[in-house]
Amino acid sequence: MTGPLKKVIIVGAGPSGLLLALRLAQQHIKVTIFEATPAPSDQPRATHYGIPAVWELRRAGVLEEMRKDPECFQFDVMCWRKLDGTYLSGMDTRDLNRPGKPYDDRITVLTLNKVIKVLGEMVAKCEDATVKYGYKVLAGVEQDEEKAWVTVQSQDGTVEKHWADYIVGCDGASSQIRRSLFGDMEFPGYTWDHQIVATNTYYDFHKYGWEDSNFIVHPEHSFMAARIGATEPLWRVTYTEVNGLTNEEILARQAKKFEIMLPGHPKPGDYKVILTSPYKIHQRCATSFRVGRYLLAADAAHLCNPFGGLGLTGGIVDVGGLADCLIGIHQGKTSDKILDEYSRVRIEKYKTIIDPISSENFRRLWDQDPEKALEKDEFLKLLKNNEGNVELSSQMQLGSLGILHDFSASFDGNKPAGSLSEKRFQSKL
Ligand SMILES: Cc1cc2nc3c(=O)[nH]c(=O)nc-3n(C[C@H](O)[C@H](O)[C@H](O)COP(=O)(O)OP(=O)(O)OC[C@H]3O[C@@H](n4cnc5c(N)ncnc54)[C@H](O)[C@@H]3O)c2cc1C
């Protein structure tokens, strides 16, 4: 099918669903989001958006709005340390922004609830987008040559059926759309043996000479401490915990963990934890991101652990590519076969880049002897041996652009789409 789309339904008003709605509505494609919860989520999840995500957020006009929030910033240095705080090696993101070679799309920090707020406000201003909170999409798949349907239940129990040209599952890790398409248990991959506990904590790590983002290598007490407040000492402290603990047990152990982990070995009262949330973490990818008129994107399609910030970054890149494909179909520039390409390429990007790199980032923290990390860990060794090498540091950081893909390069049907180089994406800014 090619030609004007009458309507797209998106399931889920998380960051990926809202961004997709925004991109489509900006091109006057009518879009409705059904969101199960009555209001946007406030859970402590994403905070750091990688360079490819920043590129996507910029071209949708979102980055500019995010930057109006005084707490939004670009962080400077990420590093790896031993539990006693000893610096192992690191990377300076300012290497990307040099005189004569300015680069404004460095990793950007803003808590997800604020990004969702920005996206929600932008979508609300679009005439062609409607967000319906308190509408849960129920199990079921129904489609024919022209349309697909979803059944939704509103909070008062009313059940309605809605149709669209395409239905996109942006409904997160437990995606109903994915389960309806493939079955409740079919999400290939695995769950890690460690669970993680994410906290938002007021504590002055800078006082101890710590960098903006610190990854602590230790078999038992690995954690990340990353600044998430631009004007206040608010930090994301995310630590690994043994699986199987109840929430009460996690909270009961937290003071002791913080005393062991944090620089200065603080007691409760020396810091203030304002949010704690345990998460099971997974590496999983759906077998296809397209079944006819149903599509999947972001967490509904694939999951990875959050160390290295590739989760939503990968999801935002899915959404950018999918929006390009749907807009291309709408404008008659390509056929719906491009959606098979979307599925194929995004799965390949997950399997060849996102899954291996995020897994390595996580294992690096607890699956090695911190005393031998600088001898045995090739990545940390590379960073250590090239301290001050601005060119290499820039190249390594821009390597993350490899998860982007320009689907519009296939629109004429002649040439296969290729992974875009940083230069080509830069030229699109
Ligand atoms: C501790 C932690 C830290 C993280 N940090 C980072 C980071 O720094 N950088 C990064 O890139 N990623 C990070 N991530 C990952 C990131 O938060 C997720 O990838 C992202 O939130 C996924 O967005 P989404 O829109 O796909 O799904 P969600 O945010 O899960 O949104 C899905 C929405 O769909 C709705 N929904 C579900 N089922 C239905 C239904 N049946 N009907 C209607 N609506 C439905 C839900 O209510 C929800 O609002 C982190 C994750 C965790 C857990």
Automatic annotation (TrEMBL):
Record Pfam families: FAD_binding_3
Gene3D superfamilies assigned to the protein according to its UniProt record, in alphabetical order: 3.30.70.2450, FAD/NAD(P)-binding domain
Entry keyword set: FAD, Flavoprotein, Oxidoreductase
GO cellular-component term (any): mitochondrion
GO MF terms held by the record: FAD binding; oxidoreductase activity
Every FAD-binding domain range: 7-348
Domain of life of the source: Eukaryota
PANTHER family in UniProt: PUTATIVE (AFU_ORTHOLOGUE AFUA_3G09540)-RELATED (PTHR43876:SF18), UBIQUINONE BIOSYNTHESIS MONOOXYGENASE COQ6, MITOCHONDRIAL (PTHR43876)
Protein name (Swiss-Prot/TrEMBL): FAD-binding domain-containing protein
Species of provenance: Orbilia blumenaviensis
Taxonomic lineage: Eukaryota, Fungi, Dikarya, Ascomycota, Pezizomycotina
